[in-house]
């Protein structure tokens, strides 16, 4: 069973950055399971899911096989017309441990115009 503490905000950001490209390939929404150890090392498990149910099951199964100090989490990606949302979740409760929202930009010139 998972006995680690919740990942720190910095660990959550590292998880999101590590998982970003894998989550993008599956579509919208997308979920994957990761393991964070006591030292903050993040290990992304190899399966990516397009729905929450199988991802939750996979995360709960992964939690049972962890050693002390490790914790399984889910990383979820959801995009809409103007925003990209990443969540780091507890697989057994689906409680949000970290939330990151990013604005979607059509191209770099639109981003430059937004700052002027």
Automatic annotation (TrEMBL):
Lineage top rank: taxon: Bacteria
Name of this chain's protein: Uncharacterized protein
Taxonomic source organism: Baekduia soli
Source lineage: Bacteria, Bacillati, Actinomycetota, Thermoleophilia, Solirubrobacterales
